[in-house]
Amino acid sequence: MSAILDADDVFALGYTAAVAAVRDALAAGLDPDHDVPRSVLALTNGQGLLMPSETGGWFGVKVATVAPGNAVRGLRRINATYLLHDSETLTPAAILDGVALTTLRTPAVSVGACLDRLRVLADSSADGLRLVVFGVGPQGEGHVRTIQAHVPLADVTAVTRRGGATPVWADRHLASDDTAVAGCVRNADVIVTATSARRPVVDGHLVRDSAVVLAVGSHEPSVRELDGVLMGRATVIVESRDVALREAGDVILAVQEGRFESNSLVTMADLLGEGSAAIPGDRPTVVKTSGMAWEDLVVAIAAYRQWREA
């Protein structure tokens, strides 16, 4: 009988181990460009996503749905279930809470891609890093928790369209039209965009040359959170060139505008695989992720192994 890992079981893996699972897989030679492309199905009230992958003796698939109208119903926008199989016998080993898995692996990928750069920034800061997060949903919090598990934070500003109560993981919560937002962005060491916005939420002129920007909110070619100004200034890290040029509107639109050359994209495998490259510190670093099946799989394997040992 398959094991069943609920949200608590998945989150028990922890932020540090989730990042390690991503980095270790790439260091061992996993090539994201060889991953099976996910299938996105147009449904009556949203989207269905099928995300299969195989690596390291395991096969897994996530079945996810995105329902934009659920917010007004008081329901989750994203729902998901993950099925993990042993590759040798193809026997189902575990069923995992897919929402928790997505919530854990998404910031693990972002932070895993730029962890060395974050540590360099932290080493040069006396008090810790200054962080601005656009969006206060699970991914906004998840990125703060994951970054905080690896480097010290001095200050966290949350920004949303209308502002509101300050979440427990932030020091303040500003509305996007508050004049103080520009100053926070100018001073930020790290900026996270985890929104459902369809247009840029960050003014690329304001971002410091040394800053790291983690953009995770979109996976559609016509949708972006970052403008072409920032993309043209930055070293842009992606999971896969093919996926970025197919799904990442932040990249695709900047290329179309002539702000960014697609052949300058840096992949996570370039950074963490054999013959790893360094990230330059004299220009912004942008990590743009769309979400890939191998990420769910390597974190699901780690969560299952820890659950089984416990």
Structure description:
The structure is a single chain. The chain is globular and about 55 Å long. It has helices spanning 7-11, 15-27, 98-123, 138-148, 180-187, 228-233, 241-247, 249-256, 268-272, 293-309; strands spanning 3-5, 39-43, 46-55, 58-66, 78-86, 92-97, 129-134, 153-160, 172-175, 190-193, 212-215, 235-238, 266-267, 285-288. By secondary structure, the protein is an alpha/beta fold. An eight-stranded parallel β-sheet has the order 9-8-7-10-11-14-12-13, sandwiched between helices. Helix 2 (15-27) packs across helix 10 and helix 3 (98-123) packs across helix 10. The relative contact order is 0.18. The chain is built from ten helices and 14 strands.
Helix percentage: 25-40%
Instruction: Supply the helix-strand structural class.
Output: alpha/beta
The count of DSSP E runs of length 2 or more, i.e. the number of strands, is 14
Which overall shape is indicated by the principal axes computed on the Cα atoms?
A: globular
Order of helices and strands: EHHEEEEEHEHEEHEEHEHHEHEH
Strand order of the largest sheet: 9-8-7-10-11-14-12-13
Largest sheet: 8 strands, parallel
The number of helical runs is: 10
Radius of gyration: 19 Å
Q: What average pLDDT do the residues reach?
A: 95
Topology:
Elements: E1 3-5, H1 7-11, H2 15-27, E2 39-43, E3 46-55, E4 58-66, E5 78-86, E6 92-97, H3 98-123, E7 129-134, H4 138-148, E8 153-160, E9 172-175, H5 180-187, E10 190-193, E11 212-215, H6 228-233, E12 235-238, H7 241-247, H8 249-256, E13 266-267, H9 268-272, E14 285-288, H10 293-309
Parallel strand pairs: 1-6, 7-8, 7-10, 8-9, 10-11, 11-14, 12-13, 12-14
Antiparallel strand pairs: 2-3, 3-4, 4-5, 5-6
Helix pairs in contact: 2-3, 2-10, 3-4, 3-10
